[in-house]
Structure formats: structure tokens, C-alpha cells
Design a protein that fits this description.
The chain is of the alpha+beta class and about 325 residues long. It folds into 3 domains: about 1-95, Rossmann fold (3-Layer(aba) Sandwich); about 120-195, Dna Ligase, domain 1; about 200-330, D-amino Acid Aminotransferase, Chain A, domain 1 (2-Layer Sandwich). The protein is about 25% helix and about 20% strand. The protein is built from 9 helices and 15 strands. It has helices at about 25-40, 50-60, 80-90, 100-105, 110-115, 135-140, 175-185, 240-245, 260-275; strands at about 1-5, 40-45, 65-70, 125-130, 145-150, 160-165, 165, 170, 190-195, 200-205, 220-225, 250, 280-290, 300-305, 330. Strands 10, 11, 12, 13, 14 and 15 form a 6-stranded antiparallel sheet that branches. It has a 4-stranded antiparallel sheet with strand order 4-9-5-8, covered by helices on one side. The model is unreliable at about 290-300 and about 300-335 (pLDDT under 50).
Length: about 325
């Protein structure tokens, strides 16, 4: 099969700027192309930077059977939907969710509203924008503290920090106005404020048509150092995900009670159906700890981010510990 592999190549240093954190490194691009070729496909790599007319010309010349797509637009709330929408218009099959689903799942708040209609619990939260900022400050957030503040339209943990210079987790109501002002300056499209859930991160992958569990993969536990004086909360922040990935380990299968693992599978399947995810996705969860640090028999579902996870911060909340909370939007891994 003739495959066009469309992608964004990361050129900037993620230690210095978040701008291209969601783009693919040269190593990732090479690994994906090699895997496709090993499966017997003819692969043409297409980096999508520059005018869209260049991409159209390449695709017309190549006439691919399918597009393996990890590319996204450069800016705006609809950026992840740009290339899927273009491929739909051209009538070329492509991997990953369609433009509508990509647009919805980049919007954490909209995703929360949609899954809540399917009786999937999410951490209590609210969307704060420049327009409603004054009202939120005047009336209060109406949430239990601590809370976490994160960009509403980002992935790859962009805008989420937890270190000596500050944390996205806000302990006291008096500190919330300053945190919101700072976040809105950097992310004027809006920020999501959610009740913080202390616990561990669990990821559930999805590859449609693989395995015997409707495409759901074995849950993976994300492990990193416990909170310290410099890292007050155990959140999978931008530095851990993008700058210091060597400090993160993964345990598969995750250390979960059977009933919690079963509940994760059930909610993951429902979220995938409700959001219209297809082909590949990743859903990120948060499993609560009790006050003694022992794992509780509950978890918090979060999505990726992708996207993988679309900017992932552990969503948090004081609700029933036996329930699962969708912390971050479930987003397609390959778009």
C-alpha cells in the first residue's frame, strides 16, 4: 500500500519553548516510517510546514492509498482538525479521528460537557476566560481547594508546571486570581480550573481492531518521584513529559484492583463511543490515594491529551472515591 506519512517536525528546543512540544522529533518520524515500511508499505514522508498548497501538490503527485497522519495546524482552537478536514475534502482516507472529533477533544471543557451526558463523571471544574474572569473572582470558583489550573486547548502538558518557581496547583482561594491572570495572559482562549485529585496516573491505550477487548490495551501506570519541597504535588507536568522524561517510569500492567481495572475498561469504551474516537487514542486517568497514601478502589479518567493527551494535568476532585473521573479529554493519538 502507498502511504503518505504527514507530520510536523519539531525544530525548537522543548527546554526553551513550548511552541512545538506536540510536534514529532526526527527520531519519532524515523521510527514510525520504519515501522510502516517493515509492514510492507511504500512510505513517503511529508513534513507539512509551509503553505498548504505545497502539501496539496505533493499529495496530487503521490496519489496515496492512505495518509498516516500525525500533523496538526500551527495555531488556533481548531488546529488539530485542520488536516483531517483537508483530507476529507480531498477524499483521501487517513488514520485517526475525524476533524469534528479532533476539534471537540482539544477543547477540555466541551469534552467534559459531552461525556457528562453519557453519565461519565469528571472532576468538578469550570472554564475561565477573559470575559468571565471578573465574575469568577467576584463570586468565587465554587470549588474545593486545592485546584489545578491548565490551558483549555493544549496538549503535551503545555502550561502545566510543578516546581520551585511555581505550580499549576493552587492551594488557597486567595492565590487563584493571580494564577488565572498569569494563565490567561499565556493562553487567552481560556483555562480550565478543576479540583485537584491526589493519586497516581493511569493510561489506557486504544487501537481499533487489536486484541480481544474492543481495541483497549492493558492499563499502564505512570510513575515518577513523590512530591518534594520543590515539587509539592505529584503531577505529570511539562518538564516531566517533555524535558526530563528519564525521570518517568512505566509499569504495565498497572497496579490496579480488578474491579477498578474493569471500571476503567467500561468507561474507556463508553468515552470512545461518545466522543467518536477511531483508530488510535489514549485515555489518561487519575487513581485516588487515601490520606495514608494507600491506593483507593477508584480512579480518575483523563485524556490525553491526546492526544496523547492533549496538555495533561491530573484533574482532581473530592467526589465519591469509588467513582472514575474523566480528567483530561480523550484525544486521538494519531490524528
Amino acid at each position: 500500500m502507498k502511504v503518505a506519512f504527514t507530520y510536523n517536525l519539531r525544530l525548537t528546543d522543548v527546554r526553551e519553548t513550548e511552541k512545538e512540544a506536540e510536534y514529532d522529533s526526527a527520531e519519532t518520524v524515523g521510527a514510525i516510517a520504519a515501522a510502516l515500511e517493515a509492514a510492507g508499505h511504500e512510505v513517503e514522508k511529508i513534513e507539512v510546514s509551509g503553505p498548504a498548497s505545497n502539501l496539496l501538490e505533493r499529495l496530487e503527485q503521490l496519489d496515496p492509498d492512505i495518509i498516516f497522519n500525525t500533523a496538526e495546524g500551527q495555531s488556533g482552537r481548531m488546529r488539530e482538525a485542520f488536516y483531517p478536514a483537508l483530507f476529507d475534502e480531498l477524499g483521501i482516507p487517513y488514520t485517526g479521528s475525524d476533524a469534528y472529533t479532533d476539534a471537540v477533544t482539544l477543547d477540555k471543557w466541551l469534552t467534559k460537557l459531552i461525556v457528562s451526558r453519557a453519565n461519565i463523571d469528571t472532576a468538578r471544574g469550570m472554564l475561565v476566560t477573559v470575559r468571565n474572569f471578573d465574575q469568577v473572582i467576584e463570586r468565587g470558583a465554587g470549588l474545593a481547594f486545592p485546584v489545578i489550573v491548565k490551558p483549555n486547548h493544549e496538549g503535551s502538558s503545555k502550561g502545566i508546571y510543578n516546581g520551585a518557581l511555581g505550580s499549576s496547583v493552587v492551594k488557597e482561594p486567595k492565590d487563584l486570581p493571580g494564577a488565572l491572570k498569569s494563565a490567561l495572559r499565556q493562553y487567552p482562549d481560556g483555562v480550565l480550573v478543576e479540583e485537584y485529585i491526589a493519586g497516581v496516573d493511569i493510561a489506557v491505550g486504544f487501537i481499533e481492531g487489536v486484541g480481544h477487548d474492543d481495541g483497549l490495551l492493558t492499563p499502564v501506570e505512570v510513575m515518577f518521584d513523590q512530591p518534594t519541597s520543590e515539587r509539592a504535588f505529584n503531577i505529570y507536568d511539562y518538564r516531566l513529559k517533555n524535558v526530563e522524561p528519564g525521570k518517568v517510569q512505566y509499569r504495565c500492567p498497572a497496579n490496579l484492583p480488578r474491579d477498578v481495572a474493569a471500571r476503567l475498561r467500561s468507561i474507556s469504551s463508553e468515552a470512545i463511543r461518545t466522543l467518536g474516537l477511531r483508530d488510535l487514542a489514549r485515555l489518561d486517568y487519575r487513581q485516588r490515594h487515601d490520606r495514608r497514601g494507600a491506593q483507593r478502589r477508584g480512579a480518575a479518567l483523563g485524556a490525553g491529551d491526546g492526544e496523547p493527551a492533549r496538555g495533561r494535568a491530573p484533574a482532581q476532585g473530592p467526589a465519591d472515591p469509588g467513582r472514575l473521573h474523566l480528567q483530561r479529554q480523550a484525544q486521538p493519538r494519531w490524528r
